[in-house]
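Here comes an entry:

___
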Amino acid sequence: MIEIKNLCKSFEDKNVLTDINAVFEDGKTNLIIGQSGSGKTVLMKNLVGLLTPTSGKVLYDGRNFVAMNKKEKVFMRREMGMIFQSAALFDSLPVLENVMFPLDMFSNMNYRERVRRAQDCLDRVNLTDAQHKFPGEISGGMQKRVAIARAIVLNPKYLFCDEPNSGLDPHTSLVIDNLLSSITKEYNITTIINTHDMNSVMGIGDNIIFIYKGRKEWQGTKNDVMGATNERLNDLVFASELFRKVKEVEMNK
């Protein structure tokens, strides 16, 4: 579990995040949503230590990440998996070696054990046949699945995903969503997804945090969204005609 307490972040005189309090639970897909410029990316960067909060706490199972020294933070990051918006694979390495990279850096496994572990993770995302290909030889959706395999290869307790569906078609986005959701539950990971994809919100939103102008405006599940009275949340989620009609039907039942 990750808990944020009274988290604030300022850049010079500009307050970007103000008094954020939230809980991200184990075994659930926790989504951070908001308009562009709302502060959701800054929030995730504070969670993983790319930025330091101006004030407040970020607690990993009760451990205050903000108060840790450099060595302690490095150790903590071994418990985190990261999936970047662009997949961020190494173009010069084949898929298998991309997945093995964290093991090469941080594990005590021998080479054969590292290969076996990487192959197991590729099998989990249905990409065993692509292990000898290079990133440029596979599709964008397959690259995201490789990134997922690499993110889970060290058995992380916490998984962070920054716009994992960016640039993908609707079908492939659904595949990625379902994969993240199933892995989260299978390994009881605390997964946090930064997204603007409302299909993801309604599909896998076990716990949703809505940020507006640097403040938490709403928190609930995908089922709670249908009955939400927060106008700003509704404007974001139900901007499309399809989602508006779905909500109208649900409200009229």
